[in-house]
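Hi P.,

Sorry for the delay on this. The queue was packed all week, but I finally got your sequence through. Input first:
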Amino acid sequence: MRFAAFALLCLLAAEATASAAIPFHVGFYPSGPLDGITDVPGVAVGHVTKVEGADIRTGATAILPDSDPWIHKVSAYALSFNGNGEMTGTHWINEAGYLETPIVLTDTLDIGRADDGVISWMIKQHPQIGVRDDVPLPVVAECDDQLLNDIQARVVSPQDVVNLLDSARTGQFARGSVGAGTGMKAFGFKAGIGSASRVLPKELGGYTVGVLVNDNTGSTREQLTIDGVHVGEALRNEYKMSFPKNLTLHGRMASGSILIVIATNAPLDSRQLHAIALRAGMGMSRTGLTSDVGSGDLFVAFSTGYTFEQTAGFRISAPAEQIVEDSSVVNALYRATAEATEAAIYDALFNAKTMTGKGGVTVYGLPVDRVLQMLHAAGVQ
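Then the structure:
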């Protein structure tokens, strides 16, 4: 077990150096130093990646709003933009107005195992859970990776998730075909985990908005637009997915899905975070995504600047912070959310590489050099 944990940590360390920021800037506001969700102070991310034999291409990704969300609960809101998918624990988020567990992303058939792992990890942190303390409702969200992954194998174990949560760190992290994004695709290209951040100017509070996506959308190739350039249309007949003749895309495998996690240190309550989450949909649309009938497009937004503290006697104290009421600041946060979401989707595409998986299916990575040439010709820096 110690060797397995050590191997996992080594894998995570190796992955952390594998990603590069997209080589152009999207939007008006500058990015943070990491151009990722971990630019929001205190937010940590970790991956466990499962690539085994010819058929296993899956994993899990964790996002922690702080070191102990059970004690330091953060205001939050969960939104179903299109509901053909699952994100557990969201009824309580919207009822209570806060998030009190880590967020874990994984494949569709491993939701139960990931949920079990989150509970085990939280009991390890707080042994009174389920004894004298309340019980958590973990937030676990899924995308269907059955095209590249033997999803019936359900290889993400509860212990994997415990190790994952123990290893989550602040700072830079891997993007692309890692963690929950290992077996994902978008616009007919390989995709997965992407992230970006935007920082408001000092006169608007200097707040940071960070976004992490797991992009597995099924939108057609010609819909792909990058910073206003219709690169998908130019590539519609190239780099097509290769799969056996008897395989047809159907149901959720054809429609795909996207999970979007939005973090900010701006002091916003649940009502305001609902509006923030809606703006992620606007950033999504800029890339050409339209959210199909079969899509599970699920968002959660949280604020580390507006917290609920659990005190002795397991009581929850109301936030002492004052929420942002200045409409100019709120409008800037909306804009930053849309920009960071758009950039995070591009980040997933630019960092994911060609992958062959279950049954010999091959999904090609975005031809980055050709896309950059198209962007340059269109005047995109």
